[in-house]
Amino acid sequence: MARILLLCWRDSTHPQGGGSERYLEHVAAGLAAAGHTVVYRTSRSAGAARTGVDDEGVRFSRGGGRFTVYPRALAAMLLGRVGLGPLGGLRRPDVVLDTQNGVPFFSRLATRAPVVLLVHHIHREQWPVAGRLVARIGWWIESWLSPRLHARSQYVTVSLPSADELAGLGVDPARIAVVRGGLDPLPDGVAPGGP
To answer: Of 18, 99, 141, 172, which one's alpha carbon is 20 to 30 angstroms from that of 147?
Structure first.
């Protein structure tokens, strides 16, 4: 079975965790249920454990904050290649899923494994909120640097409009797959349309 590393800036234990994180955790649970070794590397919010394993068998490795999660994950990947650090047990993953939430983790620089970029949407409209300098740097990374760095990577997004935007940034449409979010099954005893 495969060793899979998932990179995301938050998980659902983070106070600001949301839909993107839940989506990735469902992906992780499905992969673990299929017998794969899955490690979810993310930031560490106040009170969150550095490591843990959830009920589905997904291992969590947490470190860094809002901005430091990216370099710390990259350093953890590099150390992990030689069996050290928080990803030392994983060593060399067979595939890396890099969640690009405006900015990728640049995992392509730390692994020879295939990298899949998960992009929920393009942040063109969100960047100006970050301030002029951060907006310019962030948009340059998202719109110019990342598409070139990941030119041979597979992209996954959740909608056709996002796929079109990625193609507009220069991502080869043949490398973009649309995987829409699903729904959880209703809990036992809850009727459709019920409370």
So the answer is: 18
CATH of domain 3-178: 3.40.50.2000
What the block records as the tokens of 126 is 């969100």
pLDDT in tens, 107-131: 999 999 999 999 999 999 999 999 9
pLDDT at 17: 85
Q: Write down the domain spans for the chain.
A: 3-178
CB of 77 closer than 8 Å to CB of 107: yes
Question: Among residues of the chain, what percentage have pLDDT more than 70?
Answer: 99
Do 79 and 88 form a contact (C-beta atoms < 8 A)?
Answer: yes
Note the pTM of the prediction, 2 decimals.
Answer: 0.91
